[in-house]
Write a structure and sequence with these properties.
The protein is α+β, with helices and mostly antiparallel strands. Helix content is 61%, strand content 13%.
């Protein structure tokens, strides 16, 4: 498990590292929930980048 901080328990009561619990998908969901405008800004930036490359 290395030097990852242990801060969560799984459904069986075993300790797991925060890095194993918070994967990229769950973090994205959390960030969008905490900051609803973030998703809109990211979409707007992606669209602008796509227009510049065309």
């Amino acid at each position: 498990m290395g030097d990852k901080p242990i801060s969560f328990k799984d459904k069986d009561g075993n300790f797991v590292s925060a890095a194993d619990v918070w994967n990229a998908e769950k973090l994205e969901e959390l960030f969008n929930k905490l900051n609803p405008k973030r998703k809109l800004r990211l979409e707007r930036e992606a669209l602008a980048e796509k227009d510049q490359s065309s």
